[in-house]
Amino acid sequence: MRDIDHLWIDGTRTTPLEGTVEERTHPADGSPTGRVVMGGAADVDRAVTAADRAFDDWSRTTPEERIALLENLLVEFDRRADDLADAVTEDMGAPVTLARGAHVPSGRAQIAGAIEAARAHAFEERRGSTVIRHEPLGPAALITPWNFPVLQMAGKTASALAAGCTVVLKPAESAARSAEVFAEVVHAAGTPAGVFNLVHGHGAVVGSALAAHPGIGVVSFTGSLTTAVRVTTAAAPTMKRVLTELGGKSPQILLPDADFDVAVGAVHRWMMAMTGQLCSAPSRTLVPRARMEEFLSVLVPSLEALTVGDPRDPATDMGPLVSEAQWNTVQGWIRRGLAEGARAVTGGPGKPEVAEGLGAGHYVRPTVLVDVTNDMAVAREEIFGPVMSVIPHDTVEEAIAIANDTPYGLAAYVVGADRERVEEVASRVRAGAVLLNDAELDWTAPWGGYKQSGNGREFGVEGMLGFLETKVIHGG
Predict the structure, then answer these.
(1) Which residues contact 260 (CB under 8 A, 6 or more apart)?
(2) Which long-range contacts link 333-338 to residues 24+ away (Cβ below 8 Å)?
(3) 206: which DSSP letter?
(4) Kind of pairing, strands 454-455 and 433-436?
(5) Is the pLDDT of residue 356 over 80?
(6) Residue 168 pLDDT more than 70?
(7) Which of these, 111, 107, 166, 175, lies nearest to 141 by C-alpha position?
(8) Which string of b and e fits 208-221 if b means at least 16 CB within 10 Å?
(9) Residue 261 phi, psi (nearest 5)
(10) How far is CA 359 from CA 93, 309, 449, in A?
(11) Tens of pLDDT, residues 322-349
């Protein structure tokens, strides 16, 4: 057990002025992992004051100076890669192979991408006698989720620092260990005092205080729509910029000539490997009606062959959900889907058989629901668990209409043999990112959604631009 009894403010470990201490347990078996101190509004004020004080100097650094710090950060990140992976597994129950193979590398890609963005971007340009400058907005509040903690903390922090902003990070309560290791990485990189600050705490307390604080110039939030509305409302009186990346109910459109092995591979990689705890998971698969049974004959056996168990075991394919509360939520959604008339062709309520000694873990059965229509709640609401709806379509036009019939628009997937047709369908889906034939994701490309999936973009040049404001100097 390792306790986290401090915050990071003004370059040092700091005892909070207020807040509570909470116990943490391992998602795999319920064993205690240590206590975490929660900060309060007074701690937010201290952190923002430190960030504001440091902003004057940091905002006037050159891109080259900021790149030098990010390069040091990358070195320290690589040195602590195993510690970061272990922390992700402890925090959220991600299989160790996934933590090492996806969680940590995706975070590394964000730091490297921010370095390249700072190198490539023209922070100042001249148009005749007019000078156009991109300047940092001010101290940035970064509010990150638990489901991809290293990616989100690294991506938001690196983009903000590259832009010249100072930072106050509020990590998810369930990702405290990952946040602690990341803070150590940032500190070891030689980050000047006040440039990076971290306050653990509950969103309703620390997150709201950050959003409302007049010393914050921009808020970057990733999480649920409900919380985003609260954050945006708190930020509104000061008119600060609020960048949001929210939920999804992403469709996977299978065209009549789709290769089902490719489609099932996307389900494994982007849904089941993450235990469904991914905002861009392909939770609605739209299948040609004439090929439905063929698709299920490929999908179902592959899911039933998954090893669900201890995420610390390299042989595990799918670990537990992050918490008992999330387990109860997912169970409720499965039962609701069945009550609405859906049918589980594999999985369903309850826990799968897992290794002896893991009975207290938050395990759920990979579940496939059929006889689903797109007006059912399980086809419209984000479940955040390994529960997928399979919906038939009779034409490609109908599939596109179903795909777009959602309040969300974060991601989509299209599978088909005709490349021109695949790209044409992708162009008609209202989503911020579309993966064709289970393509590799470019982690430095801009990321964000349409509609209720948020505004703005994260990662790469576009992610850095979110932290910059435009100034025009006439007659310069």
Answers:
(1) 254, 291, 294, 295, 298, 299
(2) 333/377, 333/378, 333/381, 333/383, 333/385, 333/387, 334/367, 334/369, 334/387, 336/377, 336/378, 337/369, 337/372, 337/376, 337/377, 337/378, 337/387, 337/389, 338/369
(3) I
(4) unpaired
(5) no
(6) yes
(7) 166
(8) bbbbbbebbbbbbb
(9) -65, -35
(10) 14, 10, 38
(11) 999 999 999 999 999 999 999 999 999 9
Cα 474 to its chain centre, rounded Å, is: 41
Phi, psi of 397 (to 5 degrees): -60, -45
- Both tokens of residue 345? 């062709």
In angstroms, the CA 374 to CA 437 distance is 23
Strands 130-136 and 124-127: antiparallel
Pairing of strands 140-143, 218-222: parallel
Q: Please give the full DSSP string across 273-336, using - where no structure is assigned.
A: GGTT--TT---EEEEEGGGHHHHHHHHHHHHHT--BS-TTSTT-SB---S-HHHHHHHHHHHHH
- CA atoms of 412 and 426, how far apart (whole Å): 8
Which strand (E) or helix (H) includes residue 401? helix 396-404
Q: What is the mean pLDDT of residues 281-303?
A: 98
Q: Above 90 in pLDDT, residue 7?
A: yes
- Assigned token pair, 352: 């799968």
144: Cβ contacts below 8 Å, ≥ 6 apart: 152, 153, 156, 169, 170, 171, 172, 175, 179, 222
Look up residue 132 and give its two tokens: 């156009």
Please give the pLDDT value at position 1.
56
CB 341 within 8 A of CB 347: no
Active site residues: 245, 279
Nearest to 26 by CA among 78, 90, 76, 83: 90
- In whole angstroms, give the CA distance from residue 397 to residue 405: 12
Token pair of 399 as six digits: 């599939």
CB neighbourhood size of 377 (10 A):
13
* Pair of tokens at residue 415: 């599978």
* Token reading at 253: 């459109």
